[in-house]
Amino acid sequence: MIDYDFSYFFIVSQLLSICRILIRMFPFERKEKILGRLRKTGRLSINEDAKLFNVSISTLHRDLEDLEKQGLVKKVVGGAVLVNGIQFTTHFDKRLQNQSREKKAIAKKALDYIQDDTSIYLDHSTTTTYLAREIKQRSYKSLLVLTNSLQIPIELGGVQGIQVISTGGAVESEFKAMYGRWVLDSIQRINLNQIFISVGAISVDNGLMTQIHFINDLFPELFRRSQHINVLVDSSKFYKLCTFQISPLTPSFTIFTDKGLPAEIRHEIEAKGVKLVI
Fold first, then answer.
1. Distance between CA 236 and CA 98 in Å, rounded?
2. Last residue of some domain: 61, 82, 103?
3. Nearest 5°: phi and psi at 232?
4. Which domain holds residue 248?
5. 8 CB burial (10 A radius; 0-12, 13-18, 19+)
6. N or C, where is the chain less crowded by C-beta within 10 Å?
7. DSSP states of 255-269
8. pLDDT exceeding 90 applies to what percent of the chain?
9. The pTM is what?
């Protein structure tokens, strides 16, 4: 006779094991979270916080050792503390400085595609932040900007002729972004003429990719809300690979990139009917 109680608990235990695997963070994400917790509490306990980050004590020890080598934390008995006087920057701040010249050039090109008396969506990426700074320099009578970014309302708030609407949502401080059901609900309430986004990686074969789980949920819904999808990516993104595939390349995409993109990749992208702006 089958022991149903045993079978039930066995299945549940296996599902829990799978869930624990799926929710594990990537090392760089976990280290950012460790720093965030230290900023809030001032001290980290290895035994307690290993459970919080869903890692083993030895893994947390290695993370703290890496952070200590960078001069960000100091290991003490049973945990770690922040190093006094360190100026912390978020993951967003770091990315804002990467490929900055290329991102600014891409933003200037994308600006020419934004028309007055329209509604657009700007995501939380650093490239669209540069685009927001370009928008601020141009005169508009009525431009509506919907965004899940925490930074873009700072850039465009109070600028005459521009109405900024925040999606609201749960806050991801390291990316200066909002995510969750609130963001999706906001998108469904507004008709968008164009959307401007960026991704972690892009290729002819795999299309748009990301390493961030909430982007994988957000972008497909965005794509259903507008027929004009503008993807702003510097050429370094064509040499990367991310975990989540958002969408294959389609003719509805206009890709803005820089002159560093090889001619071979340009031809392959254009062969798919995708407009490329360099």
1. 10
2. 82
3. -105, 105
4. 93-277
5. exposed
6. N
7. EE--TTS-HHHHHHH
8. 56
9. 0.70
